[in-house]
Amino acid sequence: MVTKIQIAVVFVLSWHGVASALEPDEILVIANRQISASERIAEYYCEKRKIPKKNIIYLALPYQSEGSCSEGFPAKSDVW
Question: What is the mean pLDDT of residues 28-53?
């Protein structure tokens, strides 16, 4: 299951205009070792964008398989 954070990361990495485009060797891709799909997505992304696989950083980030990403965070009305 692809999380909202993974989708956001891919969107941010792919949302550059031509004038601000980075070279493949200037891009860093982060994958979560706790989620096998994250590793596969990172490797696929690197393959399609011709990013060297040495530019993938594998981190063991916490993973919650159920629930919302916003659980545990205060409501926006409580912050503002």
Answer: 94
